[in-house]
Amino acid sequence: MPLDPQARALLDQFAALGAQSLSSMSVPDARRAMEALGAMRGEPVSIKHTADRRIPGPAGEIPVRVYTPAATAPLPLLVYFHGGGWVLGGIETHDGVCRELANGAGCVVVSVDYRLAPEHKYPAAAEDCYAATQWAAAHAADLGGDAARVAIGGDSAGGNLAAVVAQMARDRGGPGVVFQLLIYPATVAAFDTPSYRDNAEGYLLTTVDMRWFWNHYLRTPADGENAYASPLRAAELAGLPPAMVITAEFDPLRDEGERYARRLEEAGVPVRLSRYDGMIHGFFGMTQFLDKAKTAVQDASGNLRLAFSRR
Predict the structure, then answer these.
(1) Predicted confidence (pLDDT) per residue in 283-299, tens digit
(2) pTM of the entire structure?
(3) Domains of the chain, with CATH numbers?
(4) Backbone φ, ψ for residue 268 (5° rounding)
């Protein structure tokens, strides 16, 4: 399909504002650019309650924000990991997404402000996210949640981290995870798919940007061979929780996300793959601009509700 007209208009708006590629910036400038993009999204949807907390982590405290919708406790839990190439982003840049998922899925959302690269390289982010998932499961009752209904999710690098945490939880004996929501996840440190070639530039995220992100995240290229960095490289995917994988047609990460979904299915893991034609990387968080983003958030929320109802 052609590029969605709303996505085209958004890209034209970015170009008119003189937006630069992230890989052409310093890390501090790129972080400010992502924060500015978040500010463009306007007022977030209302939610019953939010609370900022600091929880124990493997190298000090981890900031989290807990979102509680107007629903009767105990509620299911979603531990959410933000995108930004392991280098950018945080609780504030993904505040809107977490509010919409909490309201839409009727669940408590714990948004994790994991350590960022290049200051903290692999496996810092993955270990923080695993620790946060352990904490959320252990403290579910304190959060008004149900420890038997804990899901994990994230977008882009956060989708990578959600896939990794699912593998860690399986390999390390818990905590129990009932569902994984993987939104255009980065699943392998490689740049050899048709979508990397066909969508290399012109659609917000570029192939050069992804090389920049991976180079900041990994200590050495050899780290990219590890399944806890590149979950697609895992020898075995059996025993992982059911998944929903969302991809975008005009996204360099499209093919690796879909390859991961196929491998999950081949391993006997229930998986739903939803490709959004005409969409670009990052679209899921752009509900103020893109009708298909609204549809995707509703779809993700519905699949979370279904997964939670089965417990």
Answers:
(1) 999 999 999 999 999 99
(2) 0.98
(3) 5-309 (3.40.50.1820)
(4) 90, 15
